[in-house]
Amino acid sequence: MKNQPLEGAAISLISTSFYSISNSDGDFKIQNLPKGNYIIEITYLGYKTINESIDVKEINETYTFILEEDLLNLQSVVVTGTFDPRIQLESTTSVSVLNSKTIQQTFPQGTASLLQNIPGTFIDASAGEVFTKVYNRGISASAEDDMGWYYVSLQEDGLPVSLVQHSYYSPDLFHRVDLTTKTVEAIRGGSSSITALNAPGGIFNFISHGIRDDFGGEVQISGGLQGEENALFKVDANFGGSLGNNWYINAGGHYRHDEGARNTNFTFSKGGQFRFNVIKKNERGYLKFYGKILDDYTNRWTGVAATNWDNPTPAFGQDFNSTSLLMPGFSGNIPDGRSLNNGSTNSFDPSQGVYARDLAFGFDVSQDLGNNWSIKNNIKVSAKNANWQTSISNAFVSLNNPLAYFISGADFPIGQVVFRDTQSGEELARINNSGILSGQSIQYLGQGTLPNDAIMGTSAWYKDNTADELMNQFTLRKEYKNHDITTGFSLGLSDTSMFTQGTFAYVTYEPNPRMLQVTLENPGDPVIALSDANGLSNYGGLFFVNAEAKVSQLATFINDRWKISDNIHLDLGVRYESIKHKGSKDRFAPFAQNGGFDGNNNTAYDNGILASTGQKDNFNYTYNYVSFSGGINYKINEEAAIFTRFSQGNKAPELNYYFNNFSNVPINQEGAVQKITQLEIGSKYNLKDFSFTTTAFWSELNNIGIANFEFDSDNNSVFYTPIQFNTSRTIGLEWESVFTPIENFAFRFNGIIQKPKATEWKIYNAAESVDISDDTIEDFSGNTLPFNPRLMFNFSNEYQKNKISAFFKWQFMGKREGNVANGFKLPAYSIFNLGLGYEINEKLSANLLVNNLFNSEGLANFFGENSFGANANGATPEFIQANPDASFVVVPVLPRGTLLKLNYKI
């Protein structure tokens, strides 16, 4: 706010060790300062840096400085994606900064949702806080729905949140946004090739609060409603201050209870985190000890059904804003295929969702060694666990489809089938399916029917993932004449395991699904249980993966920032990286025991359990590569600069390559290293009332391995197709701007125009079976790259005067191809957000946030035909032409949410 004191501004005297930080009154003091001439530098996020000459003639001389607002943070020092901290205006790469004000203007729906404010960044946060997708500049092909952060690094204070990724295990599982985050720095491609571990697509660094001279902080209580009046409650806090003798502490976190944006019969999210740092400042630098404890339950939204390929509308009584199609909560037990002989089981309750825990501690040291030498080392250890108990897929399965019965694992489930509600025991429907094998329809016996004459094709999805990790970044810096040289190394070690088990579940196909207990009751024959009392069927028979791996990542680098002249800086860096994957994957087979797991021939649901055979397939591969990046920045004057950068990076395979492929066969082939080449040319202007940055880019991704998730109806198994290697190219223009034509008003406009192309692209068509005799390879080279809009932007206006503030934001997402076949387009959509704030007094303020004000039904994702095991690539132009009335699965954006925040500053 204008004409207000700034607390936490950093004040330093250039070429000296004198340093201070302003207090809550905006005052600072530098003690024992000799008389003389100095250059004082004052920096504060959101304001232009001051560099002025001062002449100290008296011991107690005072000075007053007024900082001018820095609309795009171009004068702020950036520490991400660079080896030597520098202001944005002098950077040779595309950088964006989100300050605390922007963070507080965002509805609390997760990490990815916040990053929608960064220009040129594609975000799919339709699933909620986790299971999100984030990528830049068309570098997207392997950022699948179950591993959407494939190319980018999500960081906390300069180190990755997690070192490894694989299916349903991405860093967003272990990251939450609250008041402990001070700023977010984002790098789009460019220098991330040489500054991040195996993340050439970009860096998103969440930076915590640091030193405060006076003890203080903030408490925030939030409450609101989402969707059809589902409650959200959250408490945030952050405190910090001096402990004396140059020791400082900062601590905080949050707890939330969220019923979810759509309708379920359980709490969608609950839990929170605690974070802290303790800093010891000395004359030459600092020592920092920090940590995080995360203990959190959440879930993710799946797709809903639609019809009308040209203008998708909800089908089967579903609603884009309120329908979730998640299984209701219940308490069940599923035999553990890793140790059936011991009678082990895994508890399963869909209301748990994903239970994420992360215990992390680190130590960061930065010291000036004298003679223009300095070192910095940041080391962190963590123990992570993510346990999934939720549903996967929610496809329409007609009662006339033999799959509805044979997927139970029963030998011949033909005759009278009875469906009962698991909660009440009430018989909902009794049918005769005797004619389905000859193409005839089922017959209802009695008055009861099932909604839509169907069941839901869904799986009880149990996953247990663990990882113990160590990561370290060391840099040694030497400033010599016109060169600023940084070298060092990065180290990452991860000991991880993954277990996945898929169990079919009988569920009604309707907006509020119910679990079904299913039996085969042919007159004169014993009753055969096709499901257990909870509706679970074919225990562990759909999917089985049990694997472990040790991952080591080692990189060394050197970078030189060469001052060619006062206005021209050349930035050159090279990085050598070596990544080793060593591990094993269990072979499996159906559990061979008469009568299944319980030895009872009348319980068919436990006859097909997939279990470890004791045999393992080992892998041990090392990926070595060199990445380089070079840029040049020409500073036209104090307000303007232009830059260009060329980068060639690499992306080694993630563990999903071994875990998802090589089913019961030797892992005899290493994965392919993808190549990322980028060229960017940009400009930055920072005028009094108008600031903007713009970057034109050319981006190419090579050696993309693509495999599809398929279902074989002949043997009721899930499998991945053989990998095909492809290439994509994207050219585009990113921009970010702020305009303040009159006092108290600001207009922000950022976005991207791009042309994404699948230059060489082939898809393996398995013809819906594991039998390879009818398989084909389809060529879609030259088509538009899917899920990348040609136009995407954010436009907002902000007002702030005295005690009142307000903003109104328009987020536009352009049309996107739903698959590489370009058979279906996801329509463009707009989302409008509103915020109102009032400062009640100096300590207490209130803010009202409304997300998706007009309840847009925009579609963020597409999963293909509405059938069990289908995927987006199956919806080719030929398929759509032949099936104009078919239903398909889409994932809508989240509905309206309204939140009231009360903030109390201490």
TrEMBL record:
<feature type="domain" description="TonB-dependent receptor plug">
    <location>
        <begin position="90"/>
        <end position="203"/>
    </location>
</feature>
<keyword id="KW-0812">Transmembrane</keyword>
<keyword id="KW-1134">Transmembrane beta strand</keyword>
<protein>
    <submittedName>
        <fullName>TonB-dependent receptor</fullName>
    </submittedName>
</protein>
<keyword id="KW-0675">Receptor</keyword>
<dbReference type="InterPro" id="IPR012910">
    <property type="entry name" value="Plug_dom"/>
</dbReference>
<keyword id="KW-0798">TonB box</keyword>
<dbReference type="Pfam" id="PF07715">
    <property type="entry name" value="Plug"/>
</dbReference>
<dbReference type="InterPro" id="IPR008969">
    <property type="entry name" value="CarboxyPept-like_regulatory"/>
</dbReference>
<keyword id="KW-0406">Ion transport</keyword>
<keyword id="KW-0998">Cell outer membrane</keyword>
<dbReference type="Pfam" id="PF13715">
    <property type="entry name" value="CarbopepD_reg_2"/>
</dbReference>
<keyword id="KW-0410">Iron transport</keyword>
<comment type="similarity">
    <text>Belongs to the TonB-dependent receptor family.</text>
</comment>
<feature type="domain" description="TonB-dependent receptor-like beta-barrel">
    <location>
        <begin position="339"/>
        <end position="853"/>
    </location>
</feature>
<dbReference type="InterPro" id="IPR000531">
    <property type="entry name" value="Beta-barrel_TonB"/>
</dbReference>
<keyword id="KW-0813">Transport</keyword>
<dbReference type="InterPro" id="IPR036942">
    <property type="entry name" value="Beta-barrel_TonB_sf"/>
</dbReference>
<keyword id="KW-0732">Signal</keyword>
<keyword id="KW-0472">Membrane</keyword>
<dbReference type="Pfam" id="PF00593">
    <property type="entry name" value="TonB_dep_Rec_b-barrel"/>
</dbReference>
<dbReference type="InterPro" id="IPR037066">
    <property type="entry name" value="Plug_dom_sf"/>
</dbReference>
<dbReference type="InterPro" id="IPR039426">
    <property type="entry name" value="TonB-dep_rcpt-like"/>
</dbReference>
<keyword id="KW-0408">Iron</keyword>
